[in-house]
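Methods: example folding runs. The two proteins below were folded one after another, and each record is reproduced exactly as written to the output file, sequence line first and structure-token line second.
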Amino acid sequence: MRARILSRLLQIQRALVRHGLDDFVRATHLYRPFRFLVYLSPWTWFQRSIGVTRGERLRLALEELGPIFVKFGQALSTRRDLLPPDIADELAKLQDRVPPFEGAIAVASIEKAFGLRLADIFGSFEAAPLAAASIAQVHVATLKSGREVIVKILRPGMREIIDLDLEVLQYLAELADRYWVEARRLRPADLVREYRKTILDELDLLREAGNASQLKRNFTGSPLLYVPEVHWDYCRVNVMVMERIHGVIVSDLEELRARGTNIRKLAENGVEIFFTQVFRDNFFHADMHPGNIFVQIDDPENPRYAAVDFGIVGTLQARDQHYLAENFMAFFERDYGRVAALHVESGWVPRGTRVDELETAVRTVCEPIFNKPLKDISFAQVLLRLFETARRFDMQVQPQLILLQKTLFNIEGLGRQLYPELDLWQTAQPYLRKWMRARNSPRALLRRIRARLPDTLMALQEVPQIFQTAVRDAAEGRLRLQVENTVVAEVRAEMRRSNFRRDATIAAAVLWMSGLVWLAFSTKAPWLGWSQMTAAIAIFIWSRSFKPRGE
């Protein structure tokens, strides 16, 4: 496995060099002794990207490296305020203009999935793709009934490519956990595990179809968002068929303005959709880059969003949802003491944190951005200062909130493109306040109690038996209290690792020295000396990756 990971890392560096992105390679600290091999390779130099812009070189490198890198580029492309225009323009092409695979391969995938000829499935099918993205591409087709649909087909071999890149990310995260002082706070291994679930879910188009159906139910009859209908009889793990929608891509501002669209209302609706999904429904579209968002403008004064690509959706635990809403409200009201207290209560900062000090730090970062439109706010600077604050107070990253943060990042970037004068805070505050009032109303409380009542009654029925068993065990001296101390377990595991590595290192050193002595003084069987030295190296390397049983 390590050989595959090393090979992939060298592929990444080779692609960066070939596309003239040498600065990225020079900034990479891994495998520094081997880097010269990449530079000296004639194969690399003869294929370097020549005569193209830096933005195009970056896009080509990300496309070559595969879906995980393309998705990184897509996320960056939504933040034109943080990127030079030439790079932003090129990365925007990753949203729906990734090089497609051949139409014949698409047809073969469909026929294999259905076990039928294409002509027996669809009334018509366009072999040329309508759009191509990192994991799948879409084709226009019609059903036998004549309804126009979109057919989404997974790229061949995606699972193998993604599995390898996830192994690379996991390996890098493990290295960071072991050697990086910030790892305990930033939790890279947990972040990779969270991302693994997200990206692998995208490879199951039946799951995506289910996400689309749920989102459509949540917004049935809504003037804010339209979700296309899923044709379930035509869906498989690697093929999904949905209603085709027509509209203007949200990033085409010239067309939107030419058709008289109320841009301000469109931007405000986007904020309301986000908060509706997160707080009312607790089910949000988490891949809202412009390539996945269209605008229906049958009524230009009341434009409606139309979403596609539901491979990534997010949900929150009730506890996180509560603390998040409370944080938003306290933030909107500039109640920085409440923001600080909520961070301590939620466990996002250590229990011993002084609330007054955290309050002052949050006020210093956030106060300057109020009462300013998006165009006057440098979110890059705000983020940097928040990261500095987080580091100072040992604030841990919350992997379960990463999807939400990514979505908010995209929404804010989209709002900046559409209507820079948008007041994000004033737009969001009334909706969030209304939601919190509804959530804390007596009717909502009774509804929650009624939903939990059957489970509560079942649990109460078990209490007498549990109590009786505990009393009997105590009387007979058989009552035991199990206390599980994670910290103690970790310390013991680390001690076992250290002891094993120490003993293995001593054994390897003895073997190495005996091999040297044998080679120096014996004229017969030199292979024995070399064998001892080789065994010493193997023992030393193996001891570095040793984990005690049960870890």
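Second run, written to the same file directly after the first:
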Amino acid sequence: MAKVIIGSWQDKFTDNRNISQDKIEDSYSEVDKLLKENRLKAFIGWDGFFIFDREAPVVDMFRAYVQKVQDESCGYCTPCRIGTQVVADRLGAIAAGFGSQRDLDEIRKMAVVIRDASMCELGHTSMNALLKVMEVMPEVFEQAIRERRPLARGVYHAMATAPCVNACPAHLDVPRYIDAIRSGNYFESLSIIVRKNPLAGICGRVCVKPCESVCRRAELDSAVSIKSLKRFSSDQVYSNAVTKITQIVPLPLTSDKKVAVIGAGPAGVTAAFFLRRNGYSVRVFEALNEPGGMSAVGIPDYRLPRDIVNTEVRRIAAEGVDFSYGVRIGRDITLKELRSEYDAVLIAIGAHGSKDVGMAGEDLKPVGLVSGVEFLRDMNTLQPQGKFNPPPGRHVVVVGGGNVAMDCARSAVRLGYPRVSVVYRRTEKEMPADHEEIRDAKLEGIEFHFLTHPLRLEMEDGKVTGMTCIKMALGEPDASGRRRPVEVAGSEFMLACDVVIPAIGQATDFSFSSDDFPIKSTKWGTVAIDNDTLMSSQEGIFSSGDCVTGPKALIDAMGNGIHAAHVIDLYLRGEKMRLPESELLYRMIKAMDLPASLVDRVGDEIRCDLDQRSVAERIGDFNEIEQGYNPEEAIREAQRCLRCYRVAMFVTEE
């Protein structure tokens, strides 16, 4: 078990060297669980270190750590570029048995210079652990110098990361692509993005931006507009103002194995993209007549224009991924037949079903009651053909507090309904929708009824006439961490309306499964899988995305798609299926839950937000609201990035 023998993080120092092993408290059991049989011996990070094994190769592991820092140095400033090389060389000499006391003195002096004079966080943080270990364990370095013999090497797993990179489900190298924008190299920026994210234009518009929620720039003034910079790179490269998309040559096939992907949503398309790049023949089967899944039919054009989705997927198709549209598995071809034809199958069908609110009368399906998923799908697929007939009425009430609810309400405004309301059972603070979506909905005249829950649909002649609701109060936190809403006795009231759109959740459609070839489900109605291998109950059939996790953000589905491509690749090569080492390291860092560092900078640069069309102009159509950056704005915003890179290294037994 991971018991700290000696360690330091920020200002907290732990020294258990004189305490017997059985009396030391276990500190990082979650990391042990992730490593399984591979024992953790030490960890070195940006604000300190922990040693869990009395025999850990202290000197050599710090040599390896500083060498990783040197490898990651961008070269913009001398202290980091040259200083880390000097420190790495001196530690290397000591580890090789050729060190001297002078080397130790030079290491200490240079480490202070690197820490205090570097231009970015890589340099600022990279020497903290080394300086501390040389302070509290000088004897191990002095012993290595006295004995003058090569030291045993350890087993090291190192990575350069940043808070924004950790937070991104796809672990996109955010500082690096922003740095390329700052240098005016938009092609390089997009190429960095596409290494992990083949849907940059889509993510640059509708990502929920978990990266920005942890951006350390926010401690100074406001977070860097990471999402908008991603959109800028994609728009610049794929706009005629910069270049024409040249003919893409399909990638060569390097394997005779074939993979079928069910679903052309973010998870399926991402997995297909990376599997094709690994040399496999890949065909995507999509029940809709277009790509994108819920990103295409579940998000209105004013947030995500359909031509952006189509452009991104056409580029992926040009690389050699085949797409078959209008094909529903279970109707046009069975899953069993598909498995017999392909070496592996990935189920990535999303969550296109809807969940009931549970109010009385909902099961009667009166005119005027339509689920949020159905409302958006019909609007997005039928409206361009002039075939969409919105439910008749004057007052629309949307039930729910997520982005789907906001999309329904804001779309209803654009469809011409005179009055649109949102009913949500918690307060605005607990709403899962993006803050910007709630803000813009209010600006567009949408009413909000917080702490309100529907009890019963009111009907007349089979048509909705209203909804009886009850006021709620917040009680103790529930499993989600949010305070549980409880009914306030005697607070019922009638909300007159003629259209009700429940948008409280989505469900997975299992019509692809059959009695003779069943796929097991969970108690939540999602596809049951092994969490590490993503294998379903049928051998060779994998699953990822919303049909596994339940409805989550687009970037979460893409992260799932990356994982799926990795394990399917291992499966087809006959290797043991496991997490990519990089993903394991990210999970280990998260499991350690280390205190965050404070930013020691001065900040007074205002964030450059995207311009929006005026409310009066935009509520009359579905044209895109946000206008992208121009190059001057993008470069100015990119310059706000602090480049918060830091290096983490785990030392293990194997």
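Comment on the second run: The CA atoms of residues 227 and 475 lie 35 Å apart.
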